[in-house]
Write a structure and sequence with these properties.
The chain is an alpha+beta fold. It has 3 helices and 7 strands; from the N terminus they run E-H-E-E-H-H-E-E-E-E. Helices cover about 15% and strands about 40% of the residues. The longest helix is centred in the middle third of the chain and has 17 residues.
Length: about 150
């Protein structure tokens, strides 16, 4: 299991945009599981929506992407790379996520090259799927000049 502080040694994300509280299972380059606790005071809930707070679906996909980043960047030969979204396919939002929910995240890397890959992810609350789909990612080193 990785704590949030240990996660920060692998991926470059920081508060308030670090959307992983812990990684509960990790097979570098292959798959991972993690958790995100949705607290009532998270900044995202202040305006989405004040009278009926719902955790934004796009941030659920970001949480899955961050877990995928931990899985990929845990490989020794990819340490120090920066992960970026390259696309989303077949992503479906199936339920709302509300304050007090614990989101269970899981991702499997289904295709990977050195600087590009695809993961299949799913997030659940109490065993019910809230979002699932394929996430495409690109990796670049800080010195790459061909980034968009």
């Amino acid at each position: 299991m990785l704590t949030q502080e240990e996660i920060k040694t692998i991926i470059p994300h920081r508060e308030p945009f670090l959307l992983l509280d812990e990684v509960t299972e990790l097979e570098p380059g292959i798959r991972g599981k993690g958790k995100l606790e949705i607290g009532p005071t998270q900044i995202w809930l202040e305006g989405h929506f004040p009278d009926y707070p719902v955790f934004p679906g796009v941030l659920l996909t970001e949480a899955l992407a961050q877990l995928g980043s931990v899985v990929v960047l845990s490989q020794e030969n990819l340490q120090g790379y920066i992960p970026l979204f390259a696309g989303l396919d077949q992503v479906k939002f199936r339920r709302q996520v509300r304050p007090g929910d614990t989101v269970e995240l899981e991702i499997e890397i289904i295709r990977a090259k050195k600087t590009f890959g695809i993961g299949r992810g799913r997030a659940t609350v109490e065993g019910k799927t809230v979002v699932d789909g394929k996430l495409k990612f690109a990796l670049f080193s800080g010195g790459d000049s061909d980034q968009n």
